[in-house]
Amino acid sequence: MSNVFTLLLKREARLLCRRPAELANPLVFFAIVIALFPLAVGPETQLLQTLSPGLIWVAALLAVLLSLDGLFRSDFEDGSLEQWVVSPHPLPLLVLAKVCAHWLFSGLALVLLAPLLALMLGLPGRCVPVLLLSLLLGTPILSLLGAVGAALTVGLKRGGLLLALLILPLYIPVLILGSGAMQAALQGLPAVGQLFWLGSLTALAVTLTPFAIAAGLTISVGE
Amino acid sequence: MTSPFLETQSLACERDWRLLFEHLDLQLLPGQMLQISGPNGSGKTSLLRLLCGLMQPTAGEILLQGQPLHTQRHALARNLLWIGHAAGIKGLLTAEENLLWLSALHVTQDREAIWQALAAVGLRGFEDVPCHTLSAGQQRRVALARLYLPAPPLWILDEPFTALDKHGVAQLERHLASHCEQGGLVILTTHHNLQDKPAGYRELDLGQIAA
């Protein structure tokens, strides 16, 4: 069973590497939004510093959302999803592998890019570990929750806007906790509480959303 | 008297408020081949998808080895090989990579077995070519190569002959017939008149039973 998980992970990684433009899109979006802000609000370090937690998190959230619309689209169109649904392997395990691969290549890349962009916003170096940790714990939740919406809207021709409407309310707790952790770090307060909350939400998302994604895909394929 | 492997009881299917068929009773035994024919839009693919458990019937019931299908999902999955109109072939992956993954959904195969299966469908030398560069017929052959790997007994195939050349059609017909003679069960849709019919051949014309 774990064999299928690693095989699917490898297959997805291979597919993503052969379409580098799709990988770069959310990263470029993330970088552009953050690079444009100082130009728009002016180069005042104090102001940018205060804005940076929210700004980085909103940009990361939208970048993840942007990358999720097509998550299952090609698998739906070429019949791969049907093969997964009729296979003897548990569908939640397969979708977890798929989302894992997607997160490794988009979410993790965002996390690695974030410190660089944070320095552009004048975020002090002591806040970088909290920034990294909050994104590391938060982006998997964004990917997993988004995948639920992507699974439900995969059969629709233009599911993009509907996906955003469905998923954004669910993203709000993650956004508040993530930017809250960074705000606390910025003011020199401990951010452990918010990080623990994010961690528990990640654990909850990893265990429960694969079942919701699988159910969504079964509905979409059965239409 | 052996009990039927797959059975439908007054099955009905509705799509977009249009009744495709109703009161469909079928009994399929191992060793049989069922060809489903009928005009376009008569519900051939829908019937196959119902039998695969991908769709839920509007009315009636499907039984697998005498048990309702929805309680037998796992037994069905272990016995079923489904190749739909879109066969799950990724254009960005090579023929070998595609087959490696698709066969792993049942039993993981080694490279040797996959190369042999590709050679059996006439794709020797195309193992490491990305599938989007292959022709439509060659892509169909990649999907059909799954039938030459150790496969589950129940084959449900939607238009397997599409885009194949004459030689490919004849070879696939022979292969399907020999699968039936070895106790397998094949359900397929095609408009094509089969030349090589196994002993257990049956035909179902959905055009005639349409409501």
TrEMBL record, chain A:
GO terms for molecular function: heme transmembrane transporter activity. It is found in: Cell inner membrane. Belongs to the CcmB/CycW/HelB family. Keywords: Cell inner membrane, Cell membrane, Cytochrome c-type biogenesis, Membrane, Transmembrane, Transmembrane helix, Transport. This is Heme exporter protein B. Required for the export of heme to the periplasm for the biogenesis of c-type cytochromes. The lineage of its organism: Bacteria, Pseudomonadati, Pseudomonadota, Gammaproteobacteria, Pseudomonadales. The chain crosses the membrane at residues 21-42, 54-72, 93-118, 130-154, 161-183, 195-219. PANTHER family: CYTOCHROME C BIOGENESIS B-RELATED (PTHR30070:SF1), HEME EXPORTER PROTEIN B (PTHR30070). It holds the Pfam family CcmB. GO terms for biological process: cytochrome c biosynthetic process; cytochrome complex assembly. It is a multi-pass membrane protein. GO terms for cellular component: plasma membrane.
From TrEMBL, chain B:
The keyword Nucleotide-binding applies. InterPro entries: AAA+_ATPase, ABC_transporter-like_ATP-bd, ABC_transporter-like_CS, ABC_transptr_haem_export_CcmA, P-loop_NTPase. It comes from the Bacteria. Residues 6-207 form the ABC transporter domain. GO terms for biological process: cytochrome complex assembly. Keywords: ATP-binding, Cytochrome c-type biogenesis, Membrane, Nucleotide-binding, Translocase, Transport. Pfam families: ABC_tran (PF00005). SMART domains: AAA. GO terms for molecular function: ATP binding; ATP hydrolysis activity; transmembrane transporter activity. This is Cytochrome c biogenesis ATP-binding export protein CcmA. It comes from Pseudomonas fluvialis.
